[in-house]
Structure formats: C-alpha cells, structure tokens
Amino acid sequence: MEEYSNGTITVDHFPDNSLGDDKTVIEQTQLGDIDLCVSSTSPLVNVYPDYYVFDAPYLFLNRDHALKAMESEEGTAIREGIKDAGTGLIGLAWWENGFRNITNNKVAVRLPEDIKGMKIRTMENDVHLAAFKAFGANPTPMAFSELYTAMQQGTVDGQENPLAIIVGNKFYEVQKYISRTEHIYVPFCVVMNEDKFNSLTAEQQEAVLKAMEEATEFQLQNNMDLEADGIKACEDGGAEIIELTADEKAAWQKVMTDADIFSMVQDKMDHPEYLDAMLAMGK
Predict the structure, then answer these.
(1) pLDDT for residue 179
(2) d(Cα 49, Cα 88) in Å, to the nearest integer?
(3) What predicted TM-score, i.e. pTM, was given to this entire model?
(4) What is d(CA 27, CA 10) in angstroms, rounded to the nearest whole number?
(5) Distance between CA 85 and CA 69 in Å, rounded?
(6) CB half-sphere exposure, 210, CA atoms < 13 A
(7) φ, ψ (nearest 5 deg) of residue 116
(8) Most buried by CB count within 10 Å: which residue of 46, 126, 141, 268?
(9) Average pLDDT over residues 40-64
(10) What is the mean pLDDT of residues 29-45?
C-alpha cells in the first residue's frame, strides 16, 4: 500500500491479537479506531447473517471447491454485501484459515460411525452441535484454554480444529489420530472501515485494492505451504494422519443432508440461495 500510494499511505501492523481478539478487533474497526483488520466470520454473523453459510459442515468437499466458491459470483456477493448490511465495513478479500479436522485417541476416524458416542470438544455453536449430534458423537463445548489438559486426562476423547491450531497448540502430543475430515472450511474476512476507505482519494483506493490482490495471492499460497509443514510436524510428533477419500467425505456430507443441517443454516441467512449455489459447485 505504501509503495502503490507513493508513500501517501503508511501502514502500522499489529499482529498476534495485540489489539484484542477477533470480536474486539471487529468492533474497533467498525468504530474507526482500527482502519483494517483480518477476522474470522463468527463475530459478525449477528449483524451480517449471510456469514452463517461458513458454519455449514461439508458445504465444501475439498480446497478447490472452497476456493472456487469464494471466488464465485455468490462468494463475491457475500464479501461485498457486508457493506450494504450497514456494518460500517467494506469487504476487501477472502483469506484462508483452513479446514477443521477431527483428532482423537481411540480410532483412525474415516466415517461418521467411527465417532459414534465419542466425546468431541466443539465450539459453542448451535450448527456445529447439531452436526456432531447427527454424526452420532457427543459434542462437548468447553473453553479452548482447558482443551489440552482435558484431552490429556481423557475428559474428552478428541476435538476439531484447523491444522494450524492443532500444530500450534501441540495437540499431537495428546492425540494419536488426526483425521483430515475437512468438515468445515474456515475463511478469514479482510475488512476495512467504510468511512476510512471513502476518505481516501481514488488513487489511494486503487493502491489499497491492488495491494490486497497481491496479499491475497500470497496468503493463500502461504497457508497451503504451512499446511504441508503442519502435517510433517504432527507425524514427527508421533500422531497418525488419516487422509479421507472423496467417497468417505461424501458419506459425511450425506449425513448432513439427511439431518437437514443445510436448511438449519439457510434459515439464519438473508440469502439462503447462496448456500445452494456453493454446494452445487462441488458436483
């Protein structure tokens, strides 16, 4: 941004939650205390319901499907729609956190029946809870800070998170099996305070958008590289990585369809047709 704006824009970067968690940072960006931030979609679903689409398990069956959907007309409409929702924010880009995966200490999970009766720590999210109940598991919300110890002591059998979280918290030390179930795709939304963006000159706005295109390309590639490193770290730590086949993932998706979980998500959205369109892109 600094280069493309000929130095008329300077960027002060605050990494690693130094300004607060996602919810705090989003609120500060809406107020204008922060100009631009990167966040998960969860803190905004109450004011922008179309973000609920990303809570739908097995909406996407693989990364190519997910990226295709994010770059599609519907994905663009969701990204840009945050402005029209009166949030005070402009959606600049989709970045990637990654797919959530199931870890446990009992079995090499490949199919829904493998987690029947298993105590799995999940987020306090009604869609996630309904999904894991449909899979036959016993979903157990708890504070993330308590999770490592709970798995170590056997209070819960397993958990589900993106690979970066699994590696960063060394869950492979207390979990034998890491199944690449890839049941929920987690994007990051890059958003900017609407008034701040509008206060820039046309040239400065162009600089922001050009820089964001390059940053997005870098972030997506970097996340893919980190995932490969993460798999190796888990294996080196003694965990077994289980890769699911397309047919095995389809079996999980069928459970979601039969349990009508997609309709549950659509009931929360302003534009439920976006979910149908994204789901169809994987066929």
Answers:
(1) 98
(2) 15
(3) 0.91
(4) 22
(5) 21
(6) 11
(7) -60, 125
(8) 268
(9) 93
(10) 94
